[in-house]
# Entry
Amino acid sequence: MARASGLHSLAVSVPDRVLTNDHWRKNHPRLVADAEEDLWMWKQPDSWDEGSEAFNRAMAPYLKDPFRGARERRVLREGGSSLELETQAARRALAAAGTTAEEIGLLICTSFLPDHRGVGGATYLARELGLRGAAWNVESACTSSLISLQTACSLVATGQYEKVLVVTSCTYSRVAPEDDPIAWGIGDAATAMVVGPVDEGIGLLGSHGVHSGETKGAVAYHLELDGDGKPWYRLRTGKIAADVLRDTSESFLQECTGQALAKAGLELQDIDQFVFNTPLAWYASFCARSLGVDQQQTLSVYPFYANVGPALLGLNLFHAAHWKRFEPGELVLLYSVGSVSSCSAAVVRWGEVALGEVPADTSLERLREIEADTLASYRLGRIDDEVLTPAQRTPEPDRRLHRLVRRYVELAIDEPGIMQLFSRQQQDELWSLPVRARAERFLGTLEKDIGEIFRKQDRAPEVDPMVAAQSLLGIIHWGVTSHRAEGRLSRDEAVEQVAYLALHGLVARPPSYADQVADA
# Structure
C-alpha cells in the first residue's frame, strides 16, 4: 500500500542585485522610448473576441506599459552561476527540515539553463552538497518544479526512496542581454524542497498533466556568440508567441486543474488556496477569472521577481506559506504552465512544512504597496474604452444604477468604518453582534436598492440582488482599499475610478462574481 508523501521543507534563494524599471530608463532610454512607441510582444489583439476572454480582460490594463507590469527583478552579478543559487537554496531546505546530506537518497535537479552546455547540473550540485545518492536531471521548462515534486512524492510513496531533495533554478538573465526588452520581464532564482513520508491524508492527493506541444514556436533558445566571441544560449520569442500563449492558456489550466481535482476526489470549492506560477503580471488574475474563484485565494510575487521560469511556483508557494495564506490541514491547488513542454496541476493537503530564510525586502506589506502603486498607475485596473472595440466596451448603465453605485462608493471613501465592517481582520477578531448587525443592515440596504433598480429596468437579474450586492461590495472594498494605500488620487478621482470598476463588474459581467469578491 502506498504511503502518504509530501513536503518536509521549502526554501528559496535569490540574488542580492535588484534591478527596477529605472535601471532601463536611465541606462537604455532609447530602448524604452522605442518600446513605448511600438509595444513589444503582448499587444492588443486584432479582435477581443478571439482567444480567452478571461486572459484578454486580465491583460488589457497592462497594454500601455512598456514593462508589462514588471517592477523588480533579482539578477545574478557578473560571474554568477545557477550552481551557487541551487546550493544556497538546497542547504536552506536541508537545514529547515533538520535533514543531513547523508539522509538524501535522491536529488532531482532542474538547472534552467545549466552552467555547462549539454550537461545538466544535478551531479555538480550533488558533489557540492556532499550527497552520496543518485542525482537526476529533470527538465520540463517552467513546469519542472511541479513535475519534480510529483515525481519525488511518487517515489517516496512507493518506498523506493525515503527522502528526496528537489532543487530548481532559473537564470534567465544569462540568456537575455539588457539591450533586449525581453530582459525587462525576467530574473533569476532557485527553490529547494525536501520530500518524504508524511501523516496519512497530508501531502500530494492528486495530479494531472498534459504536454504543451501546441505552443511550439512560442519560445526557443538559440546558440549564438556572446560578447567574448564564445557560444552561448539566447532566449528568443517567436512572432506567434503572444497569440499562441493567450489562446491556449485557459484550456491547459482548466483541463489540468479539473483532472487533478477529480483524481483527488475533490471539488473546486474545497480548495482553500490556489498557487500558480506567474510568468506574467496578470497571470494569477487570469487564472482566478478563468476558474471563477476568489482573487483573495491566490497571490502573485511577480512584482518582486518578474518571470523566473520553473522557480516561480516554488517562490509563490514559499511566500504564501510564509504569509500564512493557508494553515496545516488546508487544501492547496498548484498549477504551472510551461511553453513547449508541459502543464500540470496538483492538489496537496498542507502539512507541517518548515521554511527557509526569507529574501530581503519581500514583505507582504511591501508587496501590497507595489500592487497599490501599480493599480493607480493603470487606473485601478480599468479597461480603457480606447483599448476595447465598441462591441467590448462596458454597456452604458442605467443612470439610477450609476447614482446608486457612486453614492455607496462615496460613503465607503468618506467613512472608513464602513469598509472595516467587511475586513477579514474584523471578521476574525472583532465580529461582535453589534458589528455583525450593522454590517447586515448595510448589505441589506444595498441589496434592496439594487433589487429596486432591477425591477424598474423590467429585467430578471442573472442572480438575486443579494449576490449582486455582495459582488458590488467586493469591488468597492478592493478599490477603496487600493485608493487609501496609494494615496495620490484626489477624493473625486477615486470616487470616479472605483465607481467605474464597480459598474463594470455589475453591468458587463454576470453579477454572480466580481473581479474582487466581498470579504463579507
